[in-house]
Write a structure and sequence with these properties.
Distance between the termini of chain B: 83 Å
Low-confidence stretches of chain A: 637-652
Structural class of chain B: alpha+beta
CATH topology of the largest domain in chain B: Fumarate Reductase Iron-sulfur Protein, Chain B, domain 2
Bound molecules: flavin-adenine dinucleotide, iron/sulfur cluster, FE2/S2 (inorganic) cluster
Largest sheet of chain B: 5 strands, mixed
Oligomer: heterodimer
Strand order of the largest sheet of chain B: 2-1-5-3-4
CATH topology of the largest domain in chain A: FAD/NAD(P)-binding domain
CATH class of the largest domain in chain B: Mainly Alpha
Helix content of chain A: 25-40%
Distance between the termini of chain A: 64 Å
CATH superfamily of the largest domain in chain A: FAD/NAD(P)-binding domain
Shape of chain A: globular
Number of strands of chain A: 23
Radius of gyration of chain B: 23 Å
CATH architecture of the largest domain in chain B: Orthogonal Bundle
Mean pLDDT of chain A: 93
Helix content of chain B: 25-40%
Chain lengths: 652, 281
């Protein structure tokens, strides 16, 4: 028997692990690359849960079709619909599979899987394992990949960094045939050949400085694909989570499950009330989400909650003690119940804020959380008859999903280069519903893995047949890039002008200020100017470490340069999208404009200008027509606030 | 127009409003340039504000931006390992003031409340140092492979739901399933020793976390099929009987995993398994 074809998977979060397990099952050899041991990937951070229709919800009127509809509505209709159809219809099967792998899902008295309520839905459709669902799911997939590793099908390259895809002309077309990567311990740079390359490197939170993401979520890997010619779609769509605990190094998430389990958001009705929260009687508290959104209450989607909290704090100056913070209150719930369902996240608060949220309401504020935009990916649509059970609410005869096994499934515009999980732009449109990301990552790996296997086996050229120079030249370029950085190194603190850590801080501050909850064209343009300045400074950045062993200083500075390019994509997309949709809220264009912008933003790298070129593609929407996304809002303000005063400057 | 200064309302520089007085904290860091290189101590002074929520990693970031020792000598940024920053990935484990713990959840306001207070940072001693505070814990992942720490499912296709499970059992498994392979329990264990040679990993003591994982998988309906293989490993040299019952592990586990319960249960199961194996011969 001939050697199996090799596939490279970059990233060992949920998406990369699910893909690796699937590819191994399909008989391919997998080379799995990750900055951190895969079991420590960012996916461990997910707390709340994973969505899927289930029998209880079905009997209460829910269905796979409605899960799809909620996802599209939540995403303000920006997502291509067939992938969302397929994902939501696979969801129950994925939960079953995870269950067989041994995920300790919370159980009902009788031993069935328990469910909780999550944002953007009126049905309980979220499965969870304590308050560490992401950790539990990641471990389950990690175990399956370890099993494949023990069987010889998977080879891990942990503490390795992906530096760029290798492209080659094959039969007159450009294809991805491998990658250049660096061992972050020995600092060895080398090329790897493959029949297909899968990018599953997660989101780009670090571009915003402090976010809820892990330190490896720099976006640099996605930026490197973009710089090599891959399209980056909907970059401006960044989700800001309404409830994070502000901190010095990161903003720790307070999961939406705190609201799902009955958490109430409020501020004192009297501006600047300095009383301890327990001293403020219920009648003197303003539960602004419940008042403004009687139907969804505290469980409105994230962008809306973030904007309302921002409005209450920044525009109305009603934040706690005049600061940018509101209360998230669980103190009315019994301690035992809280411990049973939310222990993990309550401990996080206790640990990092030093107060017990079972006794004292938590203080929270919005923070950058999720990257809806990402590498553009395609698929093969498949029309079929509507399912009488899953699609009973659709009122349709025919539906459109994705063809399983199609070799272009989740392929970027570069053949042979695929993107899975948070790093692609699929599924979540202009904002993501809570507990849909874990689903999309695992679905991507399992579903697209079949097509990728087909492509690697049947379509791709044998990488061994390609000339050595195809691989050596890009490796040499990366080697030179690293050497150039090292050549500028000298011990001690660099001048602030060229200090990579300070440039990164400035990048984070600028992006958070200009391009998160509320944006304007003017402010975004200003930020773009700032990024150009930072790019120039970064090109001259000075290292403090010239070592050829575990040089984190070098990796950081190289990543920063690529992050700056992705920041430009995010800003340029935001400037061009002159409307408000989902997470993208333009004060100067407050309404959704379907006529002009019901479109996917595409950013393509223009190497001569070292800047993105923006264009648009139609959204693929064969099933659901866009409708207004209001979540049943009413006008409401507390009597105490007669006239909103002059906008309060936010704390800096 | 709401101007959008600081939309995440976080505090970066100690001069920001809402933050208390600043103080200088002295970090003593045990450094090492790489395997086989000698160790040395370096001190750094870092400004920290009361109430800004700074942890050890935030201070290491400040040192990276300004790698100058307390004596004014220019040096290189300290190398450390980190991931989640919220004590769930296990990456940032190091020895803080003599005790292994996660640096991301080590708050400066608690550890060094006063001006001039000192914090000592060292790499864990039971794992080979890669550089400075960054150690190589491959051995822990290797052990998981050896223990077949997985459920041998039939494949990834849809085959219906998994086994039903009583909530009490789920709760028990869940506790062990929060183990983040951090190594604190191994650092604290008198029986677990540094073993740089991978060839000796399979005969040296496996340590508490591995015994906890054995229980986790043996308790699951599908993963439990491989229980005999895991118990074989627990009976082999370096298995559960090497535990001296010092109970240090359970005291330092940041996830409060009932490791000594697992040690007792697996000890019993291994004994019974050994007897069965003996009589089946
Ligand atoms: C605090 C928090 C809570 C969340 N809670 C939920 C929830 O309850 N429900 C839900 O559905 N979603 C939740 N999410 C979102 C969800 O966790 C993520 O979207 C998802 O885990 C992303 O998985 P991934 O596989 O795409 O990437 P990740 O898990 O981010 O993994 C990325 C991988 O890529 C590797 N990598 C990155 N760059 C490189 C490079 N250059 N070279 C080599 N390797 C590289 C990393 O090492 C890592 O292995 C949450 C997110 C956060 C931040
Ligand atoms: S009880 Fe056993 S495993 Fe735990 S510290 Fe003591 S010797 Fe080590
Ligand atoms: S058992 Fe506890 S201390 Fe040991 S590795 Fe796991 S989480 Fe860390
Ligand atoms: S960084 Fe993940 S545990 Fe500290």
């Amino acid at each position: 028997m001939s050697e199996p074809r090799r596939v490279i998977v970059v990233g060992g979060g949920l998406a990369g692990l699910a893909a690796s397990a699937r590819l191994a099952e399909q008989g391919l050899a997998v080379d799995l690359f990750s900055l951190v041991p895969v079991k420590r990937s960012h996916s461990v951070c997910a707390q709340g849960g994973i969505n899927a229709c289930n029998e209880v919800a079905r009997q209460q009127g829910f269905s796979e079709w409605m899960h799809m509809d909620e996802t599209l509505y939540g995403g303000d209709f920006l997502a291509d619909q067939p992938p969302v159809y397929e994902m939501t219809h696979w969801a129950p099967k994925i939960i079953d599979l995870l269950d067989r792998m041994g995920v300790p899902f919370n159980r009902t008295h009788e031993g069935f899987r328990d469910l909780r309520l999550f944002g953007g839905s009126l049905f309980k459709r979220t499965h969870f394992a304590g308050a560490t669902t992401g950790q539990q799911l990641l471990y389950a997939l990690d175990e399956q990949v370890r099993r494949a590793e023990a069987g010889g099908a998977v080879t891990k390259y942990e503490h390795w960094e992906f530096l760029r895809p290798i492209l080659a002309e094959v039969d007159g077309a450009t294809r991805c045939v491998g990658i250049v990567a660096q061992d972050l311990r020995t600092m060895q740079v080398r090329s790897f050949r493959a029949s297909a390359v899968v990018i599953a490197t997660g989101g780009c939170g670090l571009i915003f400085g402090k976010s809820t993401n892990s330190v490896s979520c720099t976006g640099a890997a996605a930026a490197r694909c973009y710089l090599a010619g891959a399209w980056y779609a909907n970059g401006e769509m960044i989700q800001v989570h309404p409830t994070a605990i502000p901190g010095a190094d990161k903003c720790r998430l307070m999961s939406e499950s705190a609201r799902g389990e009955g958490g109430r958001v409020w501020v004192p009705k009297t501006k600047g009330d300095t009383r301890h929260p327990s001293q403020i009687p219920p009648a003197e508290r303003w539960y602004f989400l419940e008042e403004r959104y009687p139907k969804y209450g505290n469980l409105v989607p994230r962008d809306i909650a973030s904007r309302e909290i921002f409005d209450v704090c920044v525009n109305m100056g009603m934040g706690i003690g005049g600061e940018n913070m509101v209360y998230l209150d669980l103190t009315h719930k019994p301690r035992e119940e809280l411990d049973l369902k939310l222990k993990g996240i309550l401990e996080i608060y206790e640990k990092f804020a030093g107060e017990d949220p079972r006794d004292v309401p938590m203080k929270i504020f919005p923070a950058m959380h999720y990257t809806m935009g990402g590498l553009w990916t395609t698929f093969t649509p498949e029309e079929r008859a509507a399912d009488p059970v899953m699609d009973r609410d659709s009122g349709r005869q025919r539906v459109t999903g994705m063809a399983l096994g199609a070799t272009n499934t989740m392929q970027t515009n570069i053949p042979g280069l695929y993107a899975l999980g948070e790093v692609n732009f699929a599924y979540h449109g202009a904002t993501r519903l809570g507990a849909n990301a874990l689903l999309s990552c695992i679905f991507d790996g399992l579903f697209a893995g079949v097509g990728i296997a087909n492509s690697a086996r049947d379509e791709a050229p044998d990488p061994a047949s390609l000339a050595a120079d195809v691989f050596d030249a890009p490796a040499k370029q990366e080697q030179d890039r690293a050497e150039a950085l090292r050549a500028r190194a000298r011990a001690g603190a660099p001048d602030p002008e060229v200090n990579p850590y300070l440039i990164a801080q400035e990048l984070g501050r600028e992006m958070t200020d200009a391009s998160t909850v509320v944006k304007t064209g003017e402010r975004l343009e200003q930020a773009l100017g700032k990024i150009r300045e930072l790019k120039d400074r970064c090109a001259r950045a000075t290292l403090a470490d010239a070592s050829m062993w575990t040089n984190q200083n070098l990796a950081f500075t190289r990543g920063l340069s690529d992050m700056l390019r992705l920041a430009e994509v995010i800003l340029a997309g935001g400037i061009e999208r002159k409307e408000s949709r989902g997470s993208h809220y333009r004060l100067d264009y407050p309404d959704r404009d379907d006529a002009n912008f019901w479109k996917t933003t595409i950013a393509e790298y223009d190497a001569d200008a070292d800047a993105p070129r923006i264009s648009y593609r139609d959204v693929i929407a064969p099933m659901v027509e866009p409708r207004a996304r209001t979540y049943g809002k009413t006008q409401s303000a507390p009597e105490a606030v007669r006239q909103p005063e002059t906008p309060a400057p936010a704390a800096s | 127009m709401p101007n959008a200064t600081s939309q995440n309302g976080t505090v970066e520089d100690p001069a920001a409003p809402g933050v208390g007085r600043t103080r200088t904290v002295r970090f003593r860091v045990k450094r090492c340039d790489g395997p086989g290189k000698p160790s040395r101590w370096e001190s750094f002074d870092v400004r920290v504000a009361q109430g800004e929520g700074a942890n050890i990693l935030a201070c290491l970031q400040r040192i990276a931006a300004n790698p100058v020792t307390a004596e004014g000598a220019k040096t290189t940024p300290v190398v450390w390992d980190a991931g989640c920053l919220e004590e769930v990935c296990g990456a940032c484990t190091m020895v803080v003031n003599g005790r292994a713990r996660q640096a991301c959840s080590a708050l400066i306001d608690t550890l060094a409340p006063n001006d001039g207070d000192e914090i000592t940072l060292e790499p864990m001693s039971k794992f080979p140092v890669v550089r400075d505070l960054h150690v190589d814990r491959s051995r822990m992942f290797h052990t998981l492979k050896r223990l077949k720490a997985w459920a041998p499912i039939d494949g990834l296709y849809a085959l219906g739901p998994g086994p039903r499970e009583q909530p009490a059992r789920q709760q028990e498994r869940y506790a062990y399933s929060t183990c983040m392979t951090c190594g604190c329990c191994l650092e604290a264990c008198p029986q677990f020793r540094l073993e740089p040679q991978p060839g000796r990993w399979d005969t040296a003591f496996v340590g508490a976390n591995a015994i906890g994982q054995t229980l986790l998988f043996n308790e699951h309906a599908i993963a439990g099929e491989l229980a005999p293989d895991r118990l074989d490993e627990m009976l082999a040299p370096g298995g559960v009987s090497d535990c001296g019952n010092a109970q240090n592990c359970v005291k330092v586990c940041p996830k409060e995993i009932p490791l000594t319960d697992a040690i007792a249960a697996i000890g019993r199961a291994a004994t019974i398994h050994g007897l069965k194996r003996f009589f089946a011969r």
